[in-house]
C-alpha cells in the first residue's frame, strides 16, 4: 500500500521521534511505500530512515524551493512547482493518508485532505496519529463541528484518530482489506 504521510520537517524531541520511528518501522516491515514531502531533515528524515531501514520504499514529493533539502537515494523523487501541486501529487500517488505531528503546513495538508474527502473527491482512509495527545484539541474541535452539524458526513467517515502507529496501520490495513 502507498501511504501518504504528512508531518513536520522540524527537529523534535523523543516523545515525537520515538513513536514516529516505530510507525516507520511498521510501514517498512509491512512492505508499504512511504509517500512523503521528500525532505531529509527533522521528523521527515526520521520517518524516511525508519521506512527505508525496514525494507519499505520511499517516494518523495518535494517542491522547487525546498529541493536543496530533498533526500538522496530514494526510490522516486518528484519535484512539484508549489505546495498546492505537492499536496495533489501526494494524494494522487497514495492509497491512504496518515497525518502525524506538525505545524501550520501539516495542519493545512490535513484540513485540505479532509475537505476533499468531505466533498467526495477521494475516498481514501485518513488517520490522524495523535502522538502524545498532540491533536487532542483538534479532535475536540472536529467533534464539536460534527455534533453541531457543521460536517455533512459523520466525523467517523472522514478521519480515524489513532493513539499510536500500530493502531493507525491496523486501521489502514483493515480498511484496505489487507488484514
Distance between the termini: 12 Å
Order of helices and strands: EHEHEEHEHEHHEH
Percent of residues in helices comes to 40-55%
| Shape verdict | globular
Largest sheet composition: 7 strands, parallel
Task: Enumerate how many helices there are, as a single number.
Answer: 7
- Main structural class: alpha/beta
Beta-strand segment tally: 7
Q: What does the average pLDDT come to?
A: 95
What is Rg?
15 Å
Strand order of the largest sheet: 4-3-2-1-5-6-7
Which segments are poorly predicted (pLDDT under 50) over 5 or more consecutive residues? Answer: none
Q: What is the beta-strand fraction? A: 15-25%
Architecture overview:
The chain has 179 residues and is an alpha/beta fold. The protein contains seven helices and seven strands. The protein has a seven-stranded parallel β-sheet, with helices on both faces. It is globular and about 45 Å long.
Structure, briefly:
By secondary structure, the chain is α/β, with parallel strands linked by helices. The chain has helices at 14-29, 42-53, 83-92, 104-118, 136-147, 155-158, 165-176, and strands spanning 2-6, 33-36, 57-63, 76-80, 96-99, 126-129, 160-162. A seven-stranded parallel beta sheet has the order 4-3-2-1-5-6-7, with helices on both faces.
Amino acid at each position: 500500500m502507498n501511504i501518504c504521510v504528512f508531518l513536520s520537517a522540524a527537529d523534535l524531541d523523543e516523545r515525537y521521534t520515538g513513536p514516529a520511528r516505530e510507525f516507520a518501522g511498521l510501514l517498512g516491515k509491512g512492505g508499504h511505500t512511504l509517500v512523503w514531502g521528500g525532505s531529509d531533515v527533522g521528523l521527515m528524515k526520521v520517518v524516511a530512515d525508519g521506512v527505508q531501514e525496514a525494507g519499505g520504499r520511499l517516494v518523495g514529493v518535494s517542491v522547487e524551493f525546498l529541493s536543496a533539502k530533498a533526500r538522496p537515494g530514494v526510490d522516486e523523487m518528484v519535484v512539484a512547482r508549489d505546495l498546492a501541486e505537492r499536496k495533489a501529487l501526494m494524494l494522487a500517488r497514495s492509497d491512504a493518508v496518515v497525518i502525524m505531528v506538525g505545524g501550520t503546513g501539516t495542519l493545512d495538508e490535513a484540513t485540505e485532505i479532509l475537505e476533499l474527502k468531505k466533498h467526495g473527491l477521494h475516498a481514501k482512509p485518513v488517520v490522524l496519529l495523535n502522538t502524545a495527545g498532540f491533536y487532542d484539541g483538534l479532535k475536540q474541535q472536529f467533534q464539536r463541528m460534527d455534533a453541531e452539524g457543521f460536517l455533512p458526513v459523520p466525523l467517523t467517515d472522514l478521519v480515524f484518530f489513532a493513539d499510536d502507529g500500530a493502531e493507525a496501520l491496523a486501521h489502514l490495513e483493515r480498511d484496505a482489506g489487507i488484514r
